Amino acid sequence: MSTPSELNDAPSVQVSIAWQRKFELLEKVGADSSHIYQVDRNKVKELSWRERFSIQYNIFAFLFTFFYYAAKGMWLKAAFIFSASVLLGVCLVIVETALQIQISESLYTIPVSALCASMANYDYYQYVKKGKKGWGSSTSILSNNIVGSIAFAISLLILVLSMLSTEEYSDQVQVGAESLYSDVSGVWRSPADNTLLTVDFMSTETKTITVGPNRDLVPVEVSQVDLDNEIISLHVLGHSSDQIITVRKIYTDENSFRINMIFPNGASFDLDFVRNL
């Protein structure tokens, strides 16, 4: 139940007929005195599926999450939702790093989007009708403007720092990849049959591998670079099937190396360096 002071804080917001209808439906199922997840389910079942959908789901809140809340004047809740989004992202990055796995990008956004979609109509009702800016009672942490401001500021700082560190890491990866491209580019010879292969990965356009005396040209594009193991995975262009060539540096001593090349048919060749391009 709202306290008299909360009712007095209700903003003078003019809502559309559609929103008025949603508010009437929310009151009909008891959302004026209970949380949306605690309303009488039998009353909810009495509504048509369109009516249930109209109060239980908000597509714009799903798409725009905390931006939607802010646009509707619910700044405090928008700040907390933004903070929750950043916290979720940090937790998932920690899990990815610790377990050395790649989590689907949808898990970074879907949970918060789904929560906003299911809560937005009820939250807006609470905001317009009862002046509730946060969640819980007026003394709740999630209703405290100072706590919300601090959470937003910290989350924003974390987001900015993570974006800067990601950009710096991407630059380092790019420099490392270009160095690896330079190392493996050149003319190489197979000790088994003296076949010459020319590797040109320094071109800004199509990267190529030229094989044998007939100089058969194989155009490729980089699909993945493993800098830790110094492996380049290449997708062969011009083929409907997914054909992959891998190139790996193999050190013979501290200052010299050969490369190992595995072709789509499984043939593997160790190649000795002949000269630069």
Describe the structure.
With 277 residues, the protein is α+β, with helices and mostly antiparallel strands. It has eight helices and eight strands. It has two domains: 162 residues, no CATH class; 91 residues, no CATH class. Strand 6 and strand 7 form a beta hairpin. It is elongated. The N and C termini lie far apart (78 Å).
Low-confidence stretches: 4-8
Main beta sheet strand tally, sense and closure: 8 strands, antiparallel, barrel
Our measurement of the CA-to-CA distance between the termini, rounded to an integer number of angstroms, reads: 78 Å
Strand order of the largest sheet: 1-2-3-4-5-6-7-8
The helix fraction, in percent, is 40-55%
- Structural class of the secondary elements? alpha+beta
Radius of gyration: 30 Å
Could you write a compact summary of the structure shown?
With 277 residues, this protein is α+β, with helices and mostly antiparallel strands.
Helices and strands in order, then pairings?
Elements: H1 4-8, H2 17-28, H3 41-45, H4 49-56, H5 59-71, H6 75-99, H7 106-130, H8 145-184, E1 186-189, E2 196-200, E3 207-211, E4 216-226, E5 231-236, E6 244-251, E7 257-262, E8 268-275
Antiparallel strand pairs: 1-2, 1-8, 2-3, 3-4, 4-5, 5-6, 6-7, 7-8
Helix pairs in contact: 5-6, 5-7, 6-7, 6-8
